[in-house]
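Annex B. Sample input.
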Amino acid sequence: MGNKKYVIIAVMALICISSGVTGYFVAINHVKQSYQKNSESPDITFEDSDIPDSPVLSVPNKITPSTKMVYEYYYPDEGSTKVAEEAPPYFMLGLSFDDMVKYYTNWDIVSFSPQEVIMRKTVYGKDSQKYIVGERDGYITVYYEEDGRKSSIKEITSINANGLSESEREKLKEGFSVVGDYSLNRVLENYSS
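Annex B, continued. Sample output.
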C-alpha cells in the first residue's frame, strides 16, 4: 500500500507540473497574440521572440519642454556668430522637424532631436546698427535710428500690431530703441510668436 501511495503522488505531481507548463505556454501565447492585435499605435513595438518582452517605446522626434533650443546668428560681414540658448517657447512644443522647416523658412535647422534643436540664421549688416521699433498702418515697423530719432524705414513687417496687448501697442506707438541685428531679430521673433 505504501508504494501505491508514492506512485499516485508521483503521477499527481507529474500531472500538475505538465499542466502548469502547458498552461504557462498557452497563457504566454495568448498574451502575445493579444498585444499584437491591440498594438496599432506606431510608437509601441514588440521584439520578435517566443516569449513577449516588455514593449519598447520609441520616443517621438518632437520638441519637448526639456529640449534645449540653440539659436545661432551668423554675421558674414563681421565673420562672427552669436549663440543664444533657451528653453523652447510654448508654441514650439510638439513640433517635429518637418513642422520647424515649414514654419521657420528663414532659418536653417542644423540639428533636430528631442534633446536639442540648433537653428541658424544669416544676418547681413552690422551688429552695432541702432533701430527704433514702432508701428505704422497697424503693422510693426523697423526704422533706422539717427541721433535718437527715427530716420528711414528699414522694414514694415507682416506682424499685425492690433493683435497685441494694449500696453504693447502703446509701447510700439512711442517706439523703442534696439541696438544690433541680433537684438532686433529677437524682438521681432517674440512679437511674431
